[in-house]
Amino acid sequence: MNEALISLRERITSGAAVVGIYGLGYVGLPLALRFSEVGMKVIGFDIDSHKVDTLSAGKSYIERLTPQRVQHALARGLEATTDFSRSSEVDALIICVPTPLNAHREPDLSFVINTVEAILPHFREAQLLSLESTTWPGTTDEELAPRLEAKGFVPGQNCAMVFSPEREDPGNPDYGTQDIPKVIGGMTPTCLELGQALYQHAIRTLVPVSSTRTAEMTKLLENIHRAVNIGLVNEMKIVADKMGINIHEVIRAAATKPFGFTPYSPGPGLGGHCIPIDPFYLTWKAKAYGINTRFIELAGEMNHYMPHWVVQKVSDALNEQGKAIKGSHILILGLAYKKNIDDSRESPAVEIMELLRDKGAALAYADPHIPRFPKMREHYFDLESVELVAERLYQYDCIIIATDHDVFDYAQLQREARLIVDTRGRLQAGANVVHA
Predict the structure, then answer these.
(1) What CA–CA distance (Å, rounded) separates 135 from 117?
(2) For a surface tag, which of 70, 184, 236, 409 has the fewest beta carbons within 10 Å of its beta carbon?
(3) What is the pLDDT of residues 159-190, one digit of tens each?
(4) What is the C-alpha separation between 335 and 349, in angstroms, rounded?
């Protein structure tokens, strides 16, 4: 280890290192707050000036991260900025930006690449660059390292580079940022050593692996495992529905087996930034090796189909009452991709809304966690969350339970609503309840 990296290790180990977090969203902001809480100086970078201004004012735009936590971090020296020239001030640069799909459902690394390109003019020796954004195996050494090397920065010699995938689980009360074991792979053994020295300040358990590619593949396996099993249980739901069987009762019964079975819940489709997207990162990369990932792609097709299946169930249920979707007033209950959070990224509720809008429905939504329909890259509705008042529930021709937040009064819904299409199995089937 040369003199520059020895100095970096000393700064990291002592806690004197300055940490830069790039992307202050659902992954980056919790990590920034965590490093601040353990006493490290943090600078948060984001291209969204609204986020920067909100944080600088001691406020939060993520429901589970309280203003008090932000204010505490500010008192400890947290700064938020849109000025990427300040990258020269930090010792560790952690990239937590989105990795979406493009219109052809192929990986879109533009946020990562643009961030790296914004950093490079200010990058210096003895800095550690960590990528946390989910991506295909090989991204760190094929896409990022060459960009640094072109500027004279060689990982393991005069700088360090690691991949350490995020494992945030919004809404999980049992696992905060510090509680979730963190996988980390380095470009070289020296890089791995420095990466571990950094993250051990903030994370209780580290899981070192042999390479950045192993770490990248680990993240994909975790999420593909979930996507495939959710695809399986969604297909089972459709089969059970045709047979007049309650799939939720079946799952509860199967889950009593103390070995060999892991329960997964069916729903209206996949949501969140990871599970609907990550499988396509591997299937795309696998094609470069001449491999067709048929099993993964089949699960993806099933999960992609689920919002369409829900809309068909709505159509059938309305037809039973002599109505069409066109002209019907339909309330979407829950906009978030899972219950008790304010995150609507890739939410199947939004796709269901678009399908219904295309068929002429008059739409409203209720989600106290998301008071106004958020800005999205591909979707928009000029709507605000409506209040669930008992006397108004009957005005809707159909209410769709898309996200089963605990704050909803389900007994009241079942009493007052004309028709409920339940995609989450929250209610027992009845005269006005249809499972989808």
Answers:
(1) 18
(2) 409
(3) 999 999 999 888 788 888 999 999 999 999 99
(4) 6
Residue 275, amino acid: I
Architecture of domain 248-435: 3-Layer(aba) Sandwich (3.40)
Please report the pLDDT score of residue 173 as a whole number.
83
pLDDT at residue 105, as a whole number = 83
CATH 3.40.50.720 intervals, the chain? 3-210, 248-435
Helix axes 189-199, 3-14, angle to 10 degrees: 20
Give domain 3-210's CATH architecture: 3-Layer(aba) Sandwich (3.40)
Q: Which of 17, 45, 15, 40 is nearest to 29 (CA)?
A: 45
- Closest Cα partner for 111 from 122, 121, 100, 102? 100
Q: Are strands 160-163 and 128-131 parallel, antiparallel or unpaired?
A: parallel
Rounded Cα–Cα distance for residues 201 and 20 (Å): 15
pTM of this structure: 0.93
Angstrom distance (rounded) from CA 164 to CA 195: 9
Dihedral, CA of residue 391, residue 397, residue 400 and residue 406, to nearest 10: 10
96, 159, 274, 398: which one is catalytic? 274
Nearest to 129 by CA among 148, 143, 152: 148
pLDDT under 50 in the chain at which residues? none
- The yes-or-no answer on residue 274 being catalytic is yes
Provide the 8-state DSSP code for 329.
E
- Per DSSP, the three-state class of 43 is strand
Calculate the alpha carbon distances from 296 to 220, 286, 308, 387 in Å.
11, 11, 20, 40
CB atoms within 10 A of CB 204: 11
CA distance 129 to 195: 9
Q: How far apart are CA 97 and CA 361, in angstroms?
A: 35
Rounded to 5 degrees, what are φ and ψ at 405? -55, 145
